[in-house]
Amino acid sequence: MRMENEFEETTMIHVQEDGPQPEMKPKAPKKKKKKKLTKAGRILFQVILVIALGVACYSGYHIYSGLKQYNQGDEAYGELAKTMLVTDASDDATSYDSKLAELEKLREQNSDFVAWLRLDDSLINYPVVRGSDNEFYLRHLFTKEYNFVGCVFIDYRNAKDFSDTNTAFYSHHMYNGTMFCDLVKYNDQAFYETHKEWTLDTFNGPYKIEPFAGIYTTGDADILHFNFESDEAFMEYVRPFYEQSTFKSDIKIQPGDQMVMFVTCDNYVKDGRYVLFSKLTPIE
User: How far apart are CA 110 and CA 160, in angstroms?
Assistant: First the structure.
């Protein structure tokens, strides 16, 4: 019998006349040739790479810029708060003159300054200003330096001495917990129970602020009314807020009372707002 000397690709074995038949090693697969990018493909790839790098740099810059502005805001308001805390330790009926001196120093720094607002056991401890519109202090600190943290300010249509029946306060809901972020915590009855009173130090003297209702609404809601034609109109304005409130309060608004409303953004709906309504009472 003739011995086979060639590989048979169909059987993939080496045939011998006698003895065991050894296994045949398979052929190595042929390497596929890599397709080269065309000139147009290389250009497209480079364009995509440049765009991706640009987006990454742009995003990184904005993250850095945002953190920087947060830190600038925290530092600026932290230093101002230290000034006001000096007089808090000796507060009594006769010590308000020393606090007025501190308020005057702040007004020398910014002529728009009208009061100092504080809520104990929270981060709300800020100067309050009134500008010539409701836009400037959305993006400027108390120092008037541009910063998206903004400032706490009252509506430019309100009286600086808080003599209106209703005064509106505005500030941002910042994601780091500052400015009016704590407002939305009033959607929890337990938070209300431990935060029933705010303090407002003004050039006319100190006031206590007692929340009585908090509601979710939108930016286009018709709730900005500062003075009223009659007691009936005032009470009609107030009544729905009790009904819609996220918490229950024993504070009752009566004809002749003054009130304030704190407004901040909330993203529960498009252009959402959370508004806290409170009674404003002079501290004798």
Answer: 14
Q: Name the nearest CA neighbour of 199 among 134, 138, 282, 269.
A: 282
- Contact status, residue 118 vs residue 152, Cβ threshold 8 Å: no
Going by the DSSP 8-state scheme, the letter that residue 17 receives in this structure is S
What residues of the chain score a pLDDT lower than 70? 1-37, 39-47, 49-70, 73, 85-94
Read off the pLDDT of residues 88-113 as tens digits, 9 standing for 90 and up. Answer: 444 555 578 889 999 999 999 999 99
Token pair listed for 211: 């929340």
> At CA 276, angle to CA 274 and CA 282, rounded to 5?
160
Beta-strand relationship, 205-218 and 258-265: unpaired
**Measured between alpha carbons, how far apart are the two ends of the chain, in Å?**
126
pLDDT at 146: 95
Tracing tokens 């209703």 back to the chain, one arrives at 166
At position 261, the amino acid (one-letter code) is M
Distance separating alpha carbons of residues 93 and 150, to the nearest angstrom:
33
Q: How many residues does the chain have?
A: 284
Count of Cβ atoms closer than 10 Å to residue 194 Cβ:
11
Taking alpha carbons only, the member of 159, 179, 178, 182 closest to residue 170 is 179
